[in-house]
Specification:
Chain lengths: 257, 257
DNA sequence: CGGAACCTTGAGGACGGTCAAAACAGGTGG
DNA sequence: CCACCTGTTTTGACCGTCCTCAAGGTTCCG
């Protein structure tokens, strides 16, 4: 996991989906922030917490967002990669309806709320870019509802792997045609509405069918086209390509160089 | 379904979660818009469509948002009640990753994008209120992921009914301690990741246990406290009460007068 | 070297799905 | 006002995907 101390790639991601000129980007880059390191497994946010006075941007590492039922069953509702901004919602809502926990050691930049609010007030292009980021979040939630509600275990896992491949590609953390997915099989189950036992069997089956290769938590995708079909994965919902709604290009493998 | 020609109650809902002064409200009320009537079952938006040049606000009636898998399985990802603003996302994203279909005859107000964009640029309080509305949407999606991923059929249906009761209460369309839920059992299944057959059996079981009463598509909740417990329903995620994060009041029945 | 967390595998069970048919409701047109 | 048609609800029988429980292996880290 390389160290990525600046916000450059975050700004580039925003600019991908919403127009930002040099001045806008400079304004974001100039936001006061403090870097912080967070240990794997520790909580960034707990359900019911009052909102923090800052937003955390993931510089490196991964985190996940989850909710619990009364009986203590856990559902992971989102997985976050570098350049994800955790909780701009806390700018506006008073408390959290979910928990966020570090999946790996995490480098985050805590951006002060009042500075961010000021920037949003003064700079509509920045406000829009952040708003759009949240809209894409929503789109991902919708796809997860579909994934969990209407696909079988094989498709769900395949879909999860496809999404992570594409998003990690966008974040620039794909190495050597493989990606490191720092999740236990239990966590993958919590993300897909399955049990760890069934995730285990499903992963083995995907490997046996020659769709993926696992070594530890490194995932290689041997046959992108097949796994895309099995997972019924169409990356349009990630809105990574604002220019071409229906482009075939978006179906290409995230492992192509 | 009473006719509700103005945007007053929409504005009131926004003001519930985000501060708006008289001038802000007047500015929203002055937005140019055209009223339109939409027949039940017709599409407002189709997946893959390029964004419209307007946002539709539901004045009366209900609609749902859905996505399809490759094999044609349908998942309803959201149900919309009066005062819901459909697709502020289209202000910023170029195409739709879902379809929206009318559940009943619908009265909507189409608000012109350019006028709305201008208002957002000029008036930060309005921008914020709309942003917050989208954040609550996200919170609902998260809860649905949990509902579908980690609750059994009985809880899922109970949860759906609780959510609809509370949201319809907020929209002011509860009559006589009952609410009209214009969904077929197949649609309820599509919303909860179940089949219509199982929804039927589950509803019968809830009725038999004395939790609800059904007459046609009118749902009466006989025992709010029990169904809330069965559905593991805690309305905090709806962020209806910004003042009191942990208030017990939020657990009260939406049928109390 | 030891322990904890995680992965793997097996056997059995259950929740919810599938398929199919019948009852019912509501609207339309004769 | 009845006859019809279509969409919806209801019920039954059977089945399969995924869960549960449990034990043994493996990996990783202190």
């Amino acid at each position: 996991m390389q160290s990525r101390p600046t916000m450059d790639s975050f700004i580039r991601r925003l600019a991908l989906r919403s127009p930002l000129d040099e001045a806008d980007m400079a304004a974001i880059a100039a936001l006061p922030r403090t870097k912080r390191e967070i240990k794997a497994k520790s909580y960034l946010i707990r359900e019911g917490d009052k909102s923090h006075a800052f937003c955390s941007l993931i510089l490196s590492g991964m985190a996940y967002r989850h909710k619990l039922t009364d009986q203590g069953a856990r559902q992971i509702v989102a997985i976050h990669v570098p350049d994800d901004l955790l909780d701009p919602q806390h700018l506006f809502l008073k408390f959290a309806d979910y928990s966020v926990q570090a999946l790996t050691t995490l480098e985050v930049a805590d951006i002060d709320h009042s500075a961010l609010q000021d920037l949003i007030l003064q700079n509509p292009a920045v406000a829009r870019a952040l708003w759009v980021d949240g809209l894409v979040d929503s789109a991902i939630y919708r796809e997860w509802v579909l994934n969990i509600g209407r696909r079988d275990a094989r498709s769900r896992i395949a879909h999860l792997l496809c999404e992570m491949a594409v998003r990690m590609r966008a974040a620039g953390v794909i190495e050597d045609s493989r990606f490191y997915l720092p999740m236990t099989q239990e966590q993958m189950g919590d993300a897909t509405g399955l049990t760890s036992v069934h995730v285990n069997r499903t992963l083995k089956a995907l490997t046996a069918s020659g769709l993926i290769e696992q070594t530890g938590r490194w995932i290689g995708i041997s046959d992108w086209d097949s796994i895309r079909r099995v997972g019924d994965f169409n990356p349009l919902y990630l809105h990574l390509d604002q220019s071409a709604p229906q482009s075939e290009a978006s179906l290409h493998s995230p492992f192509m160089t």
